[in-house]
Amino acid sequence: MNWKCGVPIAVFLLFFVIRASASEIIWLSDAPPEKVSKEIRHGMRGVSLINGKDGRERKILWIRSGSFPVESRYVNRTNTKKPVVFVISPNGERIKGELSHSRWGYVLTFEGNMEGFYNVYLFEMFVEGDTLNIMVAKAEVLSHKCSNGHAQIRRKMSPRILQDDIPFEIVRERIPGEDFHTFLSSGDDLILKVIFNGAPLEAANITLRTQKRWIKGLKTNMYGKAAFQLIGDYYPRWKEINKRNNHNFLLTAEHTIKECGSYEGIPYRLIHYIGTLGDVYIPSKTMYSSSLYGLVVLLFVITITGIFIYFHRERRKRPYREYVFGEKD
Fold this sequence. Notes:
This protein is an alpha+beta fold. Helix content is about 15%, strand content about 40%. It has three helices and 19 strands. Strands 7-6-10-11-19-18-15-16 form an eight-stranded mixed sheet. Strands 1, 2, 3, 4, 5, 8 and 9 form a seven-stranded antiparallel sheet that branches. Strands 12, 13, 14 and 17 form a four-stranded antiparallel sheet that branches. The longest helix is centred in the last third of the chain and has 32 residues, at about 285-315. The N and C termini lie far apart (about 135 Å).
């Protein structure tokens, strides 16, 4: 092959790679890359924290690309040059979020010290072929310090949506009895709702992918809901059980409608909505509590056995009797 033929092919391949990368799934993760993990502090429920340029504490999320949590890459770009960032505080107010390239990587940071869950969104639109893609990467970030007390937890934990600016998103409903200290664990039912233009969306495709590459897809019901049970995929040896072993999972929701229009001068005839939400869960409590139950049963059996042996031996003992023989007899 001469170089004149090679140039067009190289240009085509480069164009293809760029186009292919544009359709990658983007999501927000609070797990730092290994190379900077020692610089990161962690708060309640593993929330990542750094000190900003002004020395004040900031929450930090990394931009990742991929369908499975562990294999997803830490990227230095998204599908568009200037994605939009929205950060909603627990009281529903919008606060400033900053998307930047720093020594920690391509990150989204914000200052959030109010008690409760922050909704964080990375929003972008781009046309690919005849389709307008609207991608919404979402994260729920908890801010809590026990020194602030635990008053009105239920109100502070309620899920919130941003229907005026975010047309499509996944909402995780709280599990029964959940508070600021609750971790999702294997065996829990994960109840999700897909919201489209502020209303529950029926028949949306939603997929759960776990750290161990387990995958399950469902369609939402008439109330926009879907339920997954978090499976147990952590089976270490008894001595190596770590009850705080975090397992990542990633939720992806998709919905396509027929609608013609143009975006930035590029025509389209379909709109494809993609929403992502990442989170973590820990091993089921029964995994490590069963070891405690086994120890309790063992101690009980040993105790009962000891008591039985003691009384059995006591019953077999004969009382001491002294016989005195009279020489006259």
